[in-house]
């Protein structure tokens, strides 16, 4: 993990939970450090922060992000979190990992479960869920509810454009290397975001442009 900012000297808070507290998540020491560092940065109210979680394919980035989101929901009840991923498939997979953690690791699973919202085109999300019963069940619950009631919203960057009038404290972008800069700017323009966490690998597949207009003018 690469950290863009040093620790704030004014803050007394620090995510100093022992490594044993993370044993049930199955994270290694590097992943635990990444989660702790991001949480400590988000807790700081004195200055904004930018964090980068990097790792080659198959190193557990999505799992690490899921644990981070789970801990943020646990530790900071007033925090508003916007989570974006390049595609509906990626959004659903991240939602599945997060919900699985909530169900398996806390007695307050119902409360945290009800704090999460899948925001987007319901028809497309349902199509991506397909015949996967677990994904379909998660989709059915998480796609209901209001934006006011839910503390963590998952969507694609494009759909985040519909949330410009909503207030969020932190933005997390999974598979950030798969996005064009202009796509990343859509959720970054959301109101009052003070903390950003980018997750991905610059060696993974680049963003795919399907627009014939972009191809014609070589905007790729």
TrEMBL record:
Pfam families referenced in this protein's UniProt entry, alphabetically: AAA_11
What does the record give under GO molecular function?
Answer: helicase activity
Q: Which residues belong to any copy of the DNA2/NAM7 helicase helicase domain?
A: 27-143
Q: Where are the transmembrane segments?
A: none
UniProt superkingdom: Eukaryota
Q: Known PANTHER family for this protein? A: DNA2/NAM7 HELICASE FAMILY, P-LOOP CONTAINING NUCLEOSIDE TRIPHOSPHATE HYDROLASES SUPERFAMILY PROTEIN
Q: What is this protein called?
A: DNA2/NAM7 helicase helicase domain-containing protein
Q: Which organism is it from?
A: Digitaria exilis
């Amino acid at each position: 993990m690469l950290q863009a900012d040093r620790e704030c000297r004014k803050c007394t808070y620090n995510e100093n939970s022992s490594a044993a507290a993370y044993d049930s998540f199955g994270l290694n020491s590097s992943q635990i450090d990444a989660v702790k560092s991001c949480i400590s940065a988000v807790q700081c109210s004195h200055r904004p922060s930018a964090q980068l979680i990097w790792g080659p394919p198959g190193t557990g980035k999505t799992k690490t992000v899921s644990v981070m989101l789970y801990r943020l929901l646990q530790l900071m009840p007033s925090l508003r979190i916007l989570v974006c991923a390049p595609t509906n498939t990626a959004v659903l997979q991240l939602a599945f990992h997060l919900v699985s953690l909530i169900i398996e690791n806390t007695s307050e699973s119902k409360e945290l479960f009800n704090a999460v919202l899948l925001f987007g085109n319901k028809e497309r999300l349902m199509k991506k869920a397909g015949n996967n019963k677990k994904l379909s069940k998660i989709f059915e619950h998480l796609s209901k509810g209001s934006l006011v009631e839910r503390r963590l919203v998952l969507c694609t960057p494009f759909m985040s454009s519909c949330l410009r009038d909503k207030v969020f404290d932190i933005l997390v972008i999974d598979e950030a290397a798969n996005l064009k800069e202009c796509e990343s700017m859509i959720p970054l323009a959301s109101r009052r975001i003070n903390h950003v966490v980018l997750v991905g690998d610059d060696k993974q597949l680049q963003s795919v442009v399907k627009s014939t207009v972009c191809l014609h003018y070589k905007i790729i």
